Amino acid sequence: MFNQGILSRSIAAIGLSLAAMSVAQAAPISGSASFTGFATPNPTVLTCTATPCLVTNWTGLDFPSTNPNAFYSGTTGSFLSIMGASGTATFSDTSFAAPGQLFTGGGVTFTWTTVSKSYDGTTWGAVFSGTATAAGYDATMMKLSFSSQGAGTSWSAETIPVPGTIALLGLGLAGLGLIRTRRA
């Protein structure tokens, strides 16, 4: 017969250990950064296989080939510590069929692995999921939300941190163990 109190405390201990392991190394990148840019000299940053451009034939983004080609501001959390309050960044052309590096700026690089795209009749949107990296920080799961008005002559993007899966699992197990301990 199992001792429910020991089992509950064991679940809580395992959960806390998993949560602690996920943050035992360097700190993840936290906070956010906002980017803005323009399509010059091209008429648009949107790459489409046909005219008119529709969400079904929207295949990627073609940023100006200048370096840098974007500005950032509104940094918070460790983005502020790493990048400073404002500066420049370079966004790389990307095909939605081929994941890769999307931007680098101020010591942070974002590489995407998946994308979902949308168009509501006015605003083009793409949400890239991937990893942000910076010296002295853990690689951090992140999302980058891209939007462009009208024909895509100007655009903006904002990074959105994604909580660590192992930390969430660990905290969930710890909570379950504590609930079971109270009931026992």
Record the SSE blueprint.
Layout: H1 4-23, E1 34-38, E2 46-48, E3 58-61, E4 70-73, H2 77-83, E5 87-91, E6 94-95, E7 101-105, E8 108-119, E9 123-133, E10 140-149, E11 154-161, H3 165-183
Antiparallel strand pairs: 1-4, 1-11, 2-3, 3-6, 4-5, 5-7, 7-8, 8-9, 9-10, 10-11
Helix pairs in contact: 1-3
Overview of the structural elements:
The chain has 184 residues and is of the alpha+beta class. The protein folds into 2 domains: 1-26 and 165-184; 29-163. The protein contains 3 helices and 11 strands. An 8-stranded antiparallel beta barrel has the order 1-4-5-7-8-9-10-11. The protein has a 3-stranded antiparallel beta sheet with strand order 2-3-6, with no helix packed on it. The longest helix is centred in the N-terminal third of the chain and has 20 residues, at 4-23. It is globular and about 65 Å long.
Summarize the model shown.
With 184 residues, the chain is of the alpha+beta class. Helices cover 25% and strands 38% of the residues.
Descriptors:
single chain, 184 residues, alpha+beta, eight-stranded antiparallel barrel, 3 helices, 11 strands, 38% strand
Strand content: 35-45%
Helical content stands at 25-40%
- Rg for CA atoms: 21 Å
The run of helices and strands is HEEEEHEEEEEEEH
* Silhouette: globular
Largest β sheet strand count, sense and barrel closure: 8 strands, antiparallel, barrel
Low-confidence stretches: none
Mean pLDDT over all positions: 84
- Structural class comes to alpha+beta
Distance between the termini: 14 Å
Helix segment tally? 3
- Overall tally of structural domains: 2
How many β-strands, per DSSP? 11
Strand order of the largest sheet: 1-4-5-7-8-9-10-11
